[in-house]
Amino acid sequence: MDILALFGIKQTQAPEETHVSEAETIRKISDSLDKLEPSEAKYIASFAYVLGRVAHADLDISNEEVSEMERIVQALGELSEEQAVLVVQIAKTQNKLFGGTENFVVTREFRKIAAREQKISLLNCLFAVSASDASISSIEDNEIRRISREIGLDHRDFIATRSTYKEHLKVLKKRPPGAA
What we know:
Elements: H1 3-6, H2 20-34, H3 38-55, H4 63-77, H5 81-113, H6 116-131, H7 138-150, H8 155-163
């Protein structure tokens, strides 16, 4: 199941063939999400996808980021650990394969289905995923700012949430003496 199909949006291009293991992952995640109410599955899938979007902003999804995403998705969706792992895996795969074309579409759908409190929760989780390796890069920070705007939050919301993670902002960290 691809993320756009979950929202009932048809792709204009057929995706490249995937490995058998990726296809099996897709089947498992689809089965896991099929057990949820459709609106809940849509919410969790879009939430996970946007988490993957910020984790992949620097073109590398670290093990710490994956673990944090799994923890968040498990708690958010009241999913088993196995289900959370599958949701995150599919979100990561979709983001790596189609991120450039699906990012705005999925984020726009999240904006439509999420209440303000859920959007603030996502914003906090985006910073938590980025800070999971104790450093929020400028690229990640900029991606979170972009997502914040796309989901309809104002600059004050972004700054208030960002300020709780300021010790992780790479741009604000002191450089060691002699570092260029």
